[in-house]
Design brief:
This protein has a domain of 83 residues: Ribosomal Protein L22, Chain A (Alpha-Beta Complex), CATH 3.90.470.10. Helix content is 32%, strand content 31%. The longest helix is centred in the middle third of the chain and has 19 residues.
Length: 125
């Protein structure tokens, strides 16, 4: 007996935007990204506008860039977009030194992160 496999073709288009070397801890950025992941573009804008965190500003910028990419490069309607992926990866840390007692120096690490936001049209099921 012969079994045929039927492969479903994934027709969802996903566009993304990446902001690199943002001078902020990825942990603090992830706290905000967790709130907008899976939401519609309009909902995410409202959430980011009124959240009190400093991380909201670069995330808002990346989100608007991802939606602009979807609108201009793929021709999607911004009202139908949903945030499918939103994550922050660790970037290189800036190393600075703080003078301490008796001529010593302590290293201070100033973290950076790369923010990625991907959007795709809402799937009607």
């Amino acid at each position: 007996m012969r079994v045929q496999e039927i492969m479903a073709i994934d027709t969802t288009v996903e566009t993304k935007a990446i902001a690199r070397y943002i001078r902020m801890s990825p942990l603090k950025v992830r706290r905000v990204l967790d709130q907008i992941r899976g939401r519609s573009y309009r909902e995410a804008l409202i959430i980011l506008e009124f959240m009190p965190y400093r991380a909201c500003e670069p995330i808002l910028k990346v989100l608007r860039s991802a939606v602009a990419n979807a609108e201009h490069n793929v021709g999607l309607d911004p009202a139908s977009l949903v945030i499918t992926k939103a994550y922050a990866d660790m970037g290189p840390s800036l190393r600075r030194y703080r003078p301490r007692a008796q001529g010593r120096a302590y290293q201070i690490r100033k973290p950076t992160c790369h923010i990625t936001v991907a959007v795709s049209p809402e799937v009607d099921e």
